[in-house]
């Protein structure tokens, strides 16, 4: 069965950095784009970054472009989100998603809190 497991969240001060990971299993990882979302309390889920199946193409929300970088390791079935220059407004639960030919799947998320 398809599983997406995020990790790497935590509490960080403004200006700090974190790298999130999403470990995937149960599907052909190198065949599908992967997408990171985040959701803050009271807000709608927001697309943060996406990466094509080969890793050649990436896209970012305007709010994170230049600060976040998405990458993937198709040999390890992991997608990463490197986050730098973190701001309090980056606080939220970060989730990864894949839409395969059968269905879309979400991880359970990892909490990121940016606070002094």
How would you sum up this structure, described in words?
The mean pLDDT is 97. 0% of the residues lie in helices and 51% in strands. With 116 residues, it is mainly beta. The protein has strands spanning 3-7, 10-12, 18-25, 34-39, 46-51, 58-60, 68-73, 78-83, 92-99, 104-106, 110-114.
Question: What's the total helix number?
Answer: 0
Report the major sheet.
7 strands, mixed
Bin the helical content. under 10%
The shape, in one word, is globular
- Low-pLDDT stretches are none
Radius of gyration over C-alpha positions, nearest whole angstrom = 13 Å
Strand content range: over 45%
End-to-end CA span: 40 Å
- What string gives the helices and strands in order? EEEEEEEEEEE
Which class of secondary structure composition applies to the elements? Answer: mainly beta
Arithmetic mean pLDDT:
97
Describe this structure in a few short sentences.
This protein is mainly β and 116 residues long.
List keywords for this structure.
single chain; 116 residues; mainly beta; seven-stranded mixed β-sheet; four-stranded antiparallel β-sheet; 0% helix
Outline the fold blueprint.
Elements: E1 3-7, E2 10-12, E3 18-25, E4 34-39, E5 46-51, E6 58-60, E7 68-73, E8 78-83, E9 92-99, E10 104-106, E11 110-114
Parallel strand pairs: 2-11
Antiparallel strand pairs: 1-3, 3-8, 4-5, 4-9, 5-6, 7-8, 9-10, 9-11
